[in-house]
Amino acid sequence: AHHWHMTRVFGDRMKSTPPSAAHVFVSCAVLEGIFLCVNAGTFSPLIFEMFMPYHLKYTALVFAWWGGTYAGLNVARYGPMAQGDWIAARAVAAAVCVTAGVTGLALADGIGNLGPWPSYWLLIGSYSGMAVFDVALQKRQMIPPWLLKWKLGISGLIVASLLLGVVKGKYLEQNAQRLIFDAELD
Q1: DSSP state, 14?
Q2: Residue 185: which residues within 8 A CB-CB, separation 6 or more?
Q3: Residue 75 burial by CB count (10 A; 0-12/13-18/19+): exposed, middle or buried?
Q4: pLDDT tens-digit profile of 96-117?
Q5: How far apart are the first and last CA of the chain?
Q6: What's the rounded Cα separation, in Å, for the pair 143 and 72?
Q7: Which DSSP category does 79 fall into?
Q8: CA spacing 20 to 30 A to 159: which of 38, 53, 142, 152?
Q9: Which residues contact 17 (CB under 8 A, 6 or more apart)?
């Protein structure tokens, strides 16, 4: 009876998304959607430059958080095949995700003359690689079945936003002087 009640309240963790997880993903999507709208809607170099570091830092922290999630899945020994090479791969992925997230966070403020662009490329590559790894984990039942669709959805939104940030940022960087002087004349 207790298991039935818990399943009714929290959902079957193997089949359906727990309500708390859905809230986390929806919150991430809303925040990333705001950054995407700012990226798409602004032609002001000043506004873009104000929001850009926060966007990069947010996505870097989310990526590091995924490293913690992989570590948690290992601690829980989630999955029927949670042994051998794949549990080691998931442990390595946890460390790589945390390291890439922290590195992206540090690069977001710009290093020397490189600006924030290395952070963009690091995070785009990291999220893309994580998606491939998650598909491999899903095939081996090493992540909950509901997790893949949410992760691919939010990761796709994040990569699209980061790519738009690169394109828009490079455009604004090359045309900043003209855009600022045109705005002052109006």
Answers
A1: T
A2: none
A3: exposed
A4: 999 999 999 999 988 888 888 9
A5: 71
A6: 11
A7: S
A8: 142
A9: 11, 25, 146, 150
Torsion 148-150-156-161 (CA) sign: negative
* CB 61 within 8 Å of CB 32: no
CA 151 to mean position of chain CA atoms? 8
| Residue listed under structure tokens 């079957």 | 12
d(CA 1, CA 116) in angstroms, rounded, equals: 55
Ordered alpha helix ranges (H), the chain: 2-10, 19-41, 45-75, 84-107, 117-139, 145-185
- In the numeric block, the tokens 């830092």 are attached to 57
Distance (Å, rounded) from C-alpha 127 to C-alpha 15? Answer: 25
What Å distances lie between residue 2 and 118, 148, 160, 175, CA to CA?
51, 28, 43, 64
Return the pLDDT at 81: 64
Section 61-86 average pLDDT: 85
User: Dihedral angle at the C-alpha atoms of 163, 164, 170, 172, nearest 10 degrees?
Assistant: -160
Spatial distance between the Cα atoms of 139 and 131, rounded to a whole number of angstroms? 13
Q: What is the rounded CA–CA span in Å between residue 97 and residue 69?
A: 10
At 69, the amino acid letter reads T
Residues 6+ apart with CB under 8 A from 46: 180
